[in-house]
Fold these 3 entries.
Entry 1:
Amino acid sequence: MNFKLKDIGPQLMTVIAVVLIFGFFTYNAQVNMENRGIDFGYGFLSQESSFDVQFSLIEYDGSHSYFRAYLVGLLNTILVSVIGIILATILGVLVGIARLSPNYLINKFAAFYVEFFRNIPLLLQIFFWYFAALRALPLPQDADPIFGISFLTIKGLFVPAFIWQNFNIFFYSIVAAIVAIIVIRTHAKKVQETQGKQIPVLLISIGLIFILPLLSFLIGGVRLSFEVPVLKQLATTSFIYEGGVSLPPELIALALSLSLYTATFIAECVRAGIQGVGKGQKEAAASIGLTQNQVLKLVVMPQALRIIIPPTTNQYLNLTKNSSLAAAIAYPDLVLVFAGTALMQTGKAIEIVSITMFTYLSLSISISLFMNWYNNKIAIQEK
């Protein structure tokens, strides 16, 4: 294949310019660091961190390395991002559909929610939930139980912990149910396209996701027990819950804020996607006897998703990056633990900032790749 210079010239010049600019700043930084006697390297990652973290998904204390501290911050960032994305998606879809409801109260309430939460800065919402709403909760010794097993206090949410026996068998049953559901959905889609018949995929899926795990308990030897939080007195006026799982108030405030804020933008994406489907198609679907739910599921949403997914992907990326605001309320995410405490202790600014930037870049690219794959998968194929 022959290329003309005028065709590749602009691209080639752009690449050369980027390389030269990057090389200039890299060389300048290296010279300045040498003049100041600053060593460059990532060997500090294996050194002892000498600081503790209040909340961690993995075992960690001050005797562990800086790399371990990096993993703690990364996992905490992923945790709040995943929780935020799930809650924001569910709430955003519901509010987006509600904005198109013919019911006046539902429509106006959804519109008020969108306009209210999206026009208040996210940082202020985080401050509200953390310093106002959650600080008004009772002390551990004064908290009333939720369903007799959970407690929501000023020190966080305390819920029972699952204690499993033969968890691997239960896990395999879940995997088998998911595989079976995928196979059935694929078969049902082919039957609908070729014969025009509908197989009750939802009911079958619900049955499989309950029956197979239930069989693992009945004949697979799987056992499940709960460790309920118990109030313990540490001092005359100091109480804490022991046992179970504790979610710190910083995580709750951050997850709520990110979810409520991002859901407003997802709701608008959903509303725009549904309105992008021609009214005539809805009327045609209704004329052949489809119910309102069937019209939404079989006609509207498959076409609306093509409009909804690209801007929703941007909101997922924004939510993940906005999680870095966690440092404002001392939630131990990647920025606070690694780009904050670790940086101040080691002085390795360039190394730590570069690792942090690359980490967020990798998370964003991973989300984009997954959403692009899903967008291509659900795209309507013309035959």
Note: Residues 88 and 260 are 6 Å apart (CA to CA).
Entry 2:
Amino acid sequence: MSDTSRTPSLTRRALKTTVTFLSTSMTAALAVGLVVAGSSLIADRAESVGLPDVAPPVTVTAKVLTREPGYDVIRSFVGQLEAAQQADLAFEAGGTLDEVLVEEGARVAQGEVLARMDTRVLTTERKAMQAARAALEAQLELAELTKTRQAALERQGFAATQRFDEARLSVIELTARIDETDARIAQIDVRLDKSIIRAPFDGRIGARMADLGQTLSAGTPVMSLLEDAVPRLRVGLPADMALDLQVGGAAEARFGTVRYAATLVHVRPDLDPRTRTRNAVFELTLEDGQTAPAFGQSGQITLTQSVQDAGAWVPLQALREGVNGSWTILTVDGENRAALEAVELLHANDARAFVRGSFDDQTQVIAAGPHRVVPGQAVETQE
């Protein structure tokens, strides 16, 4: 092929390349123009609308914290009502039960006779001893007269000294026999006294444990007596809490819906081996119109324990749970922004918690809805 025939073909290729280049350039120029025009339009629109201001403060409920030197823990414990004194009454000597003068539930006074044993044998023996004493007294009277006469005769020389000595020794012997008889009568009186049960204190008769005619050995219980004037509630307390109690301290006892004022009487120094607690006894104070609960009834004692550990009370809703069991609260700083504060939870009840932290006294804490606020966010407080 000749050079002349190749020329048109090269020319067409060059023209095609030029057209393609121009087309691409125009497309790019058009795109740039559209971008610039779009940017200008957006800028104009932004200027007409205006940029938004900083986000408005979030309204939160705040509470002022007051640092306190410690807090009180209110705890309740279950105990059992018992009499201030309780005794199982028995005869000190054996015999047959002859008479019971009181019924179960009867109120008795100290020294009142409650029961007697059959004392007929002792009474007969006492009468015999009294008769023997009377005979000895008659013999002693005669011996005294004989001694007096022998002394007079001896002075006058009409009687031997031996007769006087015999009269004198007879008086001494009879006096000793009378003293011995008095001692035996006293022994019988003691046995007679031990055949009577008397109330050792004011109270109310409990259970009766023996029947009339029953032969009893010494110490066999006949009845129980309970002092009900001042009922007591016995409660087992943790050893550490019992140490903090003061005798005479006030408490509140509750039996069902009835509440009683209570006073600590004493705390036992030893631990109960079964419960590992220390027994504390509280006396109930009966107000006008109040009646004591039944002995043996269970009741609750409410105690207040003071813990000396500085901190402040916060609402439970103010607490935020952190990692690894830690706790935080949101406080309001001087620029009215939320600030995160780590705290240690010391005690909590139904509505609030006592926490320890580095916050200052009178610091404001976000009391409700802290989950709606993030640290650093502007807030507006309300009470």
Note: The chain has four domains: 1-52, 60-70+309-382, 75-84+227-307, 93-198.
Entry 3:
Amino acid sequence: MRYSVRSLARPLLENADKKLIKSKGEVNRLKILVCVKQVPDTTEIKIDPVTNTLIRNGVPSIVNPFDKNALEAALQLKDKYGAEVTVLSMGPGQAAEALRECYAMGADNMVLVSDRAFGGADTLATSYTLSAAIRALGEFDLILCGKQAIDGDTAQVGPEIAEHLGIPQVTYAADIELNDTTLTVTKEQEDCYEKIEVKLPALLTAVKSLNEPRYPNIRRKMQANRMEVRTLTAADLPELDPARLGLKGSPTKVKKTFVPPVHSTGVRVEGKDAGEQAGNLLKLLSEAKITFLGGDRLMSDARNVWVFIEVVRGKIKGVSLELLGQGRKMADDLGEKLVAIIPGNEIEDFCKNGYPLWCRRSHCSRPEGIKGLFHRWLHKGNVYLN
């Protein structure tokens, strides 16, 4: 979807046409607001199997990673042109820690929107509340948000804030250039990039490729720990309609939440030596009835047992000998053929050395036209043993 960048409704600035850049190196002070969210660390996330709700107790919280990209973009503009950067978050009291981390990175002001009346808000109620808080804080040239929060992945709050405020928006910003009263934004699309010019004031949402967030400054971190975070409650935002707040003002209804089934990612093959490990591996493959590896077939029967062989200076490596022995036994048990796959150009040596040991009949061929998984490895030749 391509977003229009036409100016919408009333601007936040009294004089939207004022020049932000007077001349090279001489600028008016930008006012930038960054919306951030404290989210559970997804590497530690847990779901209550009974209630199907997120377990937050004991789960560490972090600043939403995409919001850090938005903050870094604001700080880079501050470093280059001079700006006042305010970070705004909505959540319980503990979200103040996320704001303090943002201050340690370089933000100038911290504001937390927190009230029991805001609890349970979906994206619509959240964006409505945040837009009211932004109006209460004053005028801003630029509002930055992360493209989405990792605990919801809706990517809706940023665009909805822009609609509530009546300002243009550009989502998925991968590059930002400031030009007088406009921004040139490179928007990330699925298969391309789109350059968009947008008039300030505007709202942008940041993607991960926009930048690499800086680390917090130790001195500023110590300062942040001693500072009070400004808090706005429902009483501080009298324009809010109580019917549009929190759970009551959230049209989104969660029908069901569940944890996807966990699939095993692998099995550790144990063994005292390479031979025992090879035997245990082939035993596991046999029990799983896996006797054919992916890619185009080299032989018509898909139940052949394949063994990759490593030949060094005309000699088969010891582990390959163990694999061939176990493979021969496995193929006999199955009543199938043993296929030895040899990368490289050592076929003749293998045929000479390997035939007496494992082959009742050997066949050497060139795999003309082979595609798929083994194409890169079998361009020189292969050996079929049966």
Note: The radius of gyration is 31 Å.
